[in-house]
């Protein structure tokens, strides 16, 4: 499944070019963060990798193969919540894996405990707060034991404490052995989570560096501009 | 108790007392009770059959993609407006001595009426359910496909997910079954004490000139339909507050 090699990826939904010959190579470990302004195509790239829509050009190779041979899970920016209990919202996703009812139940209870939702297992998922919903969605993905987990702006509309809880869960999922590829437009989050940073602008990867090197000295002008635009904001609010 | 609960409680009380009052007014005429009872039996049986078959059919149609599906959806929507006398004639033809089901001898029986009303409400329930479930499906389809949810499992999940909205489909079916007169008249024959229901009794009494009895029966019928709707609405309001 890894390395994941993307070359010359093009995508123009409804005729507008969004991804324009994107190249990227990802290893099977750690947390890779896709950084980019709103509308830069982060969501589109994740959806292409998930196979939810066809590309208009270019190739995606999973360890040389055309399809991933490991399990892939994705948490959308607004995750689906069935009008069922919190427990049922995790458990249904384990059906396709052919587990017994007892195994499904055990796994569900286990992940719900790990994201701090065990006490709400019987409540209706639609009544959860934004942060709790995001944790439930992560639990659902986690229970599936993916090799690659795609996360689209997992904390986009959360307050700082909910954000922290979600980031802690993301680190734990990585520790469990999943490769994580997540998008964000939040620089602070990228500094806290990223092992490597993929900076997306103008339909291409402008820069792909270890987090340390990226934040110490971004190479591309676009990344510097993006960070300058974000940094005053971050300094004003973080300190 | 908040305002909405109080309103619902009032409506339920009114309905219950209303129906009780009407029945007392009729001096508990056993024939009247029989007519009301048969009406309820036939329509609720048809509703059960129509719901049990119509909901899965609608859900399946919502998540399936095959050639001719659009035509089927349009046809199903058109069937919502199917005249009940046409259904009556079709079921009559099927059940009559020389028809394909003639050997069962069901014509002019409550069973025939249940069959006719089932045929009438099934497309209605399926069509409304198809729309409701397809809307939910559009929203969930990407995640379902990524998780690898099969079609049958998706149908089950969507039916469970939409259960409160789907009461609308069922209520529409109930209204249709309780209020139709053409189909039960043709296949039931309006036989006193056997296949006479409220709508056929109203039609008959009116033509005989007994307007008082017609109006009374009409009021009972409307009260029952209103009552069932009030109960369903109250349940739905309570449930959607509880389950989001
Ligand atoms: N299905 C689609 N149809 C038309 N335009 C789309 C579609 N998906 C994305 N886009 C466009 O592509 C651009 C990038 O979108 P997106 O990937 O959501 O950006 P990001 O997630 O980085 O904010 C946006 O301008 C958006 O309008
Ligand atoms: Mg996005």
Write the layout of secondary structure elements.
The complex is a heterodimer of chains A (239) and B (244).
Chain A: E1 4-11, E2 19-26, E3 31-35, H1 42-49, E4 57-62, E5 72-75, H2 86-91, H3 101-114, H4 130-143, E6 148-152, H5 160-175, E7 179-184, H6 187-193, E8 196-201, E9 204-210, H7 211-216, H8 221-238
Parallel strand pairs in A: 3-7, 3-8, 5-6, 6-7
Antiparallel strand pairs in A: 1-2, 1-4, 8-9
Chain B: H1 3-25, H2 30-63, H3 69-79, H4 84-95, H5 110-147, H6 151-161, H7 166-179, H8 182-188, H9 198-208, H10 211-243
Helix pairs in contact in B: 1-10, 2-5, 2-6, 2-7, 3-5, 4-5, 4-8, 5-6, 5-7, 5-8, 7-10, 9-10
The complex binds adenosine-5'-diphosphate (ADP) and magnesium ion (MG).
For the structure shown, list the relevant keywords.
heterodimer, A: 239 residues, alpha/beta, Rossmann fold, 6-stranded mixed β-sheet, 3-stranded antiparallel β-sheet, 9 strands, globular, disordered C terminus, B: 244 residues, mainly alpha, MetI-like fold, binds adenosine-5'-diphosphate, binds magnesium ion
């Amino acid at each position: 499944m890894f390395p994941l090699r993307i070359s010359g990826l093009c995508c123009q939904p409804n005729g507008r070019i969004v991804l324009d010959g994107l190249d990227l190579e990802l290893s099977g470990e750690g947390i890779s963060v896709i950084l980019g302004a709103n509308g830069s195509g982060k969501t589109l790239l994740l959806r292409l990798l998930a196979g939810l829509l066809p590309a208009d050009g270019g190739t995606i190779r999973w360890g040389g193969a055309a399809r991933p041979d490991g399990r892939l899970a994705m948490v959308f920016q607004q995750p689906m919540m069935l009008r069922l209990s919190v427990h049922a919202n995790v458990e249904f996703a384990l059906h396709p894996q052919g587990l017994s009812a007892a195994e499904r139940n055990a796994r569900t209870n286990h992940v719900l405990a790990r994201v701090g939702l065990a006490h709400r297992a019987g409540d209706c998922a639609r009544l959860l707060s934004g942060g709790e919903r995001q944790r439930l969605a992560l639990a659902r993905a986690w229970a599936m034991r993916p090799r690659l987990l795609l996360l689209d702006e997992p904390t986009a509309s959360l307050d700082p404490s909910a954000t922290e809880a979600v980031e802690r869960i993301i680190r734990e999922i990585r520790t469990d052995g999943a490769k994580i590829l997540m998008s964000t437009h939040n620089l602070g989050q990228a500094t806290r989570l990223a092992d490597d940073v993929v900076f997306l602008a103008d339909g291409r990867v402008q820069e792909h560096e270890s987090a340390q090197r990226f934040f110490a000295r971004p190479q591309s002008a676009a990344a510097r501009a993006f960070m300058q635009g974000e940094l005053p904001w971050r300094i004003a609010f973080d300190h | 108790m908040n305002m909405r609960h109080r309103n619902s409680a009032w409506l339920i009380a009114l309905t219950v007392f209303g129906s009780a009052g009407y029945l007392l007014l009729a001096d508990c005429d056993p024939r009247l009770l029989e007519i009301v009872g048969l009406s309820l039996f036939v329509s609720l049986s048809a509703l059960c059959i129509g719901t049990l078959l119509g909901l899965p059919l609608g859900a399946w149609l919502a998540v399936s993609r095959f050639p001719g599906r659009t035509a089927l959806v349009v046809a199903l929507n058109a069937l919502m407006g199917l005249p009940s006398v046409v259904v009556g004639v079709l079921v009559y033809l099927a059940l009559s001595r020389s028809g394909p089901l003639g050997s069962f001898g069901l014509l002019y029986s409550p069973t025939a009426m249940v069959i006719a009303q089932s045929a009438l409400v099934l497309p209605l329930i399926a069509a409304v359910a198809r729309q409701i479930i397809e809307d939910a499906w559009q929203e969930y389809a990407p995640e379902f496909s990524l998780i690898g949810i099969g079609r049958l499992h998706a149908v089950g999940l969507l039916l469970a997910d939409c259960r409160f909205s789907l009461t609308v489909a069922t209520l529409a079916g109930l209204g249709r079954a309780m209020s139709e007169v053409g189909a039960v008249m043709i296949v039931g024959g309006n036989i006193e004490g056997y296949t006479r229901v409220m709508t056929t009794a109203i039609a008959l009494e009116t033509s005989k000139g007994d307007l008082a009895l017609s109006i009374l029966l009409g009021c009972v019928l409307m009260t029952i339909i209103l009552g069932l709707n009030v109960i369903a609405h109250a349940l739905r309001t309570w449930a959607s507050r509880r389950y989001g």
